[in-house]
Amino acid sequence: MFFGGAGEIGGPFCAGLRGKNLATLIDCGMEAKREKALRLPDFAAMKEYFEPTHVLNTHGHLDHVGGEAALIRNGIVPRQFYKSVLAREFAPIHGEDTIHITIRNWCQELGITPRQLFEKLNGPRADGEHLPIDWEMLCTQIMSGAAQKILAAEGFIGENCVLPFGFQDLRDLEYLSETVTAGKPFKIGNTLVTPYNVGHIMDALGYLIEVGGKRIFFTGDFSREATGYELVKKLDPGVIGPVDVLVINTTYACQPLEPFKTVSERFRSDLAADMAAGRRVVACGFFVDRGAKVALEIEKADLAEYLHVDGKVRDGLSIYEPHTGKLTGIEKYFVSDKEDNRAQLVRSRIKNGQPAIYLVSSGMGVEGSLSNNYIGEHLHDPNAVIYRLGWCEPGTPLDDLSIAAQNGRVVNWRGQFTKFECGVRSYQFSAHATSAEIAQTIKDFHPKTTLMVHGAPRRLEQFKKENTDLPGEIVIAENGRPYKLF
Ligand SMILES: [Zn+2]
Q1: Residue 273 C-alpha to ligand 1 middle, in angstroms?
Q2: How far apart are the CA of 59 and the centre of ligand 1, in A?
Q3: At the N or C end, where does the chain have fewer CB atoms within 10 A?
Q4: 0.85 cut: is pTM over it?
Q5: CA of 379 to the centre of ligand 1 (A)
Q6: Architecture of domain 260-426
Q7: How far is CA 219 from CA 26, 37, 206, 257, in A?
Q8: How many CB atoms lie within 10 A of CB 68?
Q9: For 2-84+180-256+432-476, which CATH class?
């Protein structure tokens, strides 16, 4: 049964696999949409279906891992969470980020800053110095309802702040986590589980589950072509062999997708031209995976001398660096958080007409992120170009800006309509299999049953119609419906 992520793209992916001696979840994600409450897997349905004893995580993207701490918070406490070394390192960063963003959004609704809220609850320091915000204390005060009580007494009325988990849940999660490695099988009771590389992002895993003489393979998000200079090891069904049941992620079924290789070549030649012309480039990178891939593109294009890395991309690169052997010394390009340093760097380069590449997160330019500041600094610089590096949620500042670039060049920036001078370009650095590769993967695994998940149902119907030569039964899976595999 799927508790989220089937019949939809980006939903909180979560599959439950129940057998005689088996009660396992494959992924437990979270959906974080703008202007919508966080969405978690359907825990109520899960409680009715089974009590999972183990969780197999495929990779560190929020829609596959973000709900794990919330599972614990909701009183569902599996004995073990299995994940790759990188997914495990990213988990606390994602978790704390989720808490920060939820509190920030709530404060925005109430019309105060997180610092004001923190000082309201804990008092300003006697010497007038600013206290650093203790996010854990703030989180605890909100979760206990103490914050709401004090705010209500002062006339701040708003929706309640719903935090999906707290810092203790994140620590419990880490305590229950175990690292697994591609190609190294392990046992859950009598069930043999083997993780395999599946392309997509670095250290992403698919799981082969062998139970009662049957073989089930969960691909997770996957790709067939190697992408990102061997950072990513592609899915090879030949190594895994035929399976009885294939659960396949089908994000780009019947959707056009520019191959990674052509995106990467276009990116490098545009960037070289921009540097030769003395332009400033703000490249909005995601801190999981894409920031690292783009940093490698820049190194490969011999343009690292212009590179400045800022925002959470720095954390991402620091995590990747010891595992890749390819980003050695990348820290020397990090922008330091020292006061005024950043603004001076940016303004002097604009003023003196010097080229620069700012690789900075967030990837969607969301308010409050450093990429939002960098974009803002360059909106009126005709010799600047904003690079969008992948998919952006509709309504995010970078999505608004890319639409406006084709359409009147006026953007609503932080609540003000602004005519902008900078250029905007888009590079879809996808980490997913193309439609043809999805069909080929089903043929290669030759399953008796295929469950297609993580795609738009209408496109999956079309995919079925266009691919009549696929082996076995093809099922477009839905959330909340049990499927009997054998
Ligand atoms: Zn993913």
Answers
A1: 31
A2: 7
A3: C
A4: yes
A5: 31
A6: 3-Layer(aba) Sandwich (3.40)
A7: 10, 28, 4, 19
A8: 30
A9: alpha beta
